[in-house]
Amino acid sequence: MRWLPYGPDAVLVECDSLGEMSAVRATVTAARLPDVVEVVPGARTVLVVGRPGTSALQQARKAVEAADLEHPPGADPREVELPVTYDGEDLRLVAETAGISVEEVVQLHTGAEYTVAFTGFAPGFAYLTGLPEPLRQSRLDTPRTRVPAGSVGLAGEFTGVYPRSSPGGWRLLGHTETVLFDPRAERPALLAPGDRVRFRSVR
Amino acid sequence: MRTLEVVEPGPAALVEDLGRPGYAHLGVPPSGALDVPALRLANRLVGNDDGCAGIESLLGGLVLRARSSCTVAVTGPPVRVTVDGRPAGSHLPIHLRPEQVLEIAAPQTGLRCYLAVSGGIAADAELGSRSRDVLSGIGPQPLKAGDVLPLGEPQGIPTGEDELAARRPPAELVVPVLLGPRHDWFAEPAQQLAVAWTVTPESNRVGLRLDGTPLRRSKDGELPSEGLVTGAIQVPPSGLPVVFLADHPTTGGYPVIGVVAPRSLPALAQARPGTTVRFRPQA
């Protein structure tokens, strides 16, 4: 683990694995330090932003150094099930790349339990880890200019759902009707770091 | 309810307050006024709390009609402000009677003027803020002719002129930079940064895009997505840096060579295309 300076009011904690990153994120979040403004997980990092002129960053470091990262605070992860119609444009491509049938792709994707590692790209866009090995496939060579809202896709070690229509290069498996992000809702993002997710086939 | 009508929005007029920090882990940018001291001053001049929502007017051209009695103030770069065609001044409280028309001309320097109104603009808040975030499309829609803006209850007494005339932005900005977190991805990062950069017209509320001698990387490959802060200088494959402003993406995969000193952000937010920026890196 490395603590990298990031301007006067933030620090980037670089971790050795996704697991360590999740543990650091959970530890800093659970410490509920009043002067910590943001705790932003990435694929291998946790960005901690403090209120200017406070000791928030030192307190966060102390909390991480005192923690047992093998057993991070659970913070009662939410479990979310997303119903998916597996009719994506890249379903066949994913099956061919994996050397399996389309039905097996659906079985693999619905059979695994995923965890929200981090977010980004758009509000409510969650990068889910736990993708079975055969489905870990590269992005499309040419990204689409428009991917419809609710599209379920995969890229690299992640799977995820586009909360709204946008350009995108993930391989598309299907779509869900579930609303992923509503800025006026009490809980604006359905998926937050640490949440557990399963996909269920509705066709 | 007291209201204010938009007659002409000008090139762009957005409702902004101090933003919505604290939601970056959900992919939501902090947003908020780019020139925070200017919005705070405008609010103070009309007796509001600092956090009230005002209007961020890009390059003026904003025309408003009072539909109720209210007090307004315009801050930011020096700018001609008129009421019913008569000069009214900037950086001071102006009382408007119903049906009076206020016009903000185009500023001669800088980019963004801020208008505060007694009681603040009471548009619906999203995630605790009334700021328009142009990256995510969160917050009140950009203002258009005919919009009627609801106003909140006036809170305090206008405090009068409490700051000397607006600063004129210097022709060349000198910006202190703290190196890191990824300066080790570049050969001689301090020397490479400490040259003249030019603000390009592609700049917006997401980031200030700079032109100059492309920064050379010493390390190839990709960086797994990591968190970004306002003021981060990110270097995409072109080697031409982007200084992220309030509507920046929350994570990104290109290396951040350094972070500008927060006190420089208001001046960077007012930097017109063609402005020279000189970074002063420190370890």
UniProtKB/TrEMBL annotation, chain A:
Pfam families: CT_C_D
GO MF term list: ATP binding; hydrolase activity
Keywords tagged on the record: ATP-binding, Hydrolase, Nucleotide-binding
Domain Carboxyltransferase: 1-191
Record carries keyword S-adenosyl-L-methionine: no
Domain of life: Bacteria
InterPro entries found in the cross-reference section: CT_C_D, Cyclophilin-like_dom_sf, PxpB
SMART domains: AHS1
The protein's name in its UniProt record: Allophanate hydrolase
Organism of derivation: Amycolatopsis bartoniae
Native organism taxonomy: Bacteria, Bacillati, Actinomycetota, Actinomycetes, Pseudonocardiales
From TrEMBL, chain B:
Top-level taxon of origin: Bacteria
Record-level Gene Ontology MF annotations: ATP binding; hydrolase activity
Gene3D superfamilies per record: Cyclophilin-like
Name of the protein this chain belongs to: Allophanate hydrolase
Domain Carboxyltransferase: start-end pairs: 25-283
Pfam families: CT_A_B (PF02626)
Keyword hit for Transmembrane: no
